[in-house]
Amino acid sequence: MNWPITQPCAGRGIVSEQNNTFIIAAFAVTWVCVIGYAVHLYRARRVADARLREAQQTFGGRT
Amino acid sequence: MGVSVDRLVAARVTAPRDPTPWIGVLGIVVLVAAQVYGVISSPPDRDMGHLQKIMYVHVPAAWNAMLAFLVVALASLRYLWKGRPADDLLAASAAEVGALLTGLTLALGMIWGKPTWGVWWTWEPRLTSTAVLFFMFVAYLILRSFVDDFERRAQWSAVVGLLGALNVPIVYMSVRWWRTLHQLQSSPMTLDSSYTWPLRVNAVAVMLLMAFAIVHRYRTAVTEYTADELADHAALRGEGNRV
């Protein structure tokens, strides 16, 4: 049963245009997630680099 | 910990070169272009109308989450086999990104489900198995934050990571094994041709961002590990307190 489940149509489809809110919400959630995680990664890297620098200054090391 | 300073320095040194500037920027640019291409080029679906466009964010997130858990499984297996700290750190990095993508998949699925099915959530097999997958990897990350001993944490994480990854084929096949509400897997056989290329391009864009995130997180984890090891070795020599 591999018929095309999603198929284009000439009109707007059965579901009405007022569902634009859901479409916009989906893309917005995606970008919030992408940007939020990028900020988290950036901050985590900064904290880790600072910890390593402090460890190297305090204890020495060849990194 | 039983890991020599030479090994930790080697782990730090052998971390992949920082891909931050170009993979991340490329991923963002490709994602923007792919989403614009998908929204503009694809016609409304027969049943869902323009809601079909949510597919371009929901499905790539789901596919790439599965890919991230494949990385977790391979790195966990390799850790259990060879005991290299780098493999544990890679598995943890991929698990974090995979959990994020699974959470995003669930959120986007709920946003898509409400106007098409009439409910935000239902306990049907695909949704339930995806929720189980999500919570397994949340548990994986919580476990890591609770165990201080590196080797014990790495071994337990590897086992939990492998058990979690075993759920991935169940999630993937759930729509065929138990035909209920969720549609079949998106593929050229189940999609009209006008939707396949936008979906592929969006999947590649998310894959680029996922690769960037995993490598970036891995490098951060190696840096944290190296700082911890330096402090631990200094503490063993009686030089001072842990940083």
CA radius of gyration of chain B is: 21 Å
Q: Let me know the largest β-sheet of chain B.
A: none
Q: Which range best describes the helical content of chain A: under 10%, 10-25%, 25-40%, 40-55%, 55-70% or over 70%?
A: 55-70%
Helix/strand-derived category of chain A reads: mainly alpha
Q: For this entry, what is the oligomeric state of its chains?
A: heterodimer
Name the structural class of chain B: mainly alpha
H and E string of chain B: HHHHHHH
Please report the two chains with the greatest interface, counting residues with C-beta closer than 8 angstroms to the partner's C-beta.
Answer: A-B, 45 and 60 residues
Strand content of chain A: under 5%
Sheet with most strands of chain A: none
Number of helices of chain A: 1
Mean pLDDT metric of chain A: 79
Unreliable stretches of chain B (pLDDT < 50, length at least 5) are none
Give the % helix of chain B. Answer: over 70%
Overall shape of chain B: it is globular
Report the strand count of chain B.
Answer: 0
End-to-end distance of chain A, in Å? 58 Å
Q: Please trace the helix and strand order of chain A, writing H or E for each element.
A: H
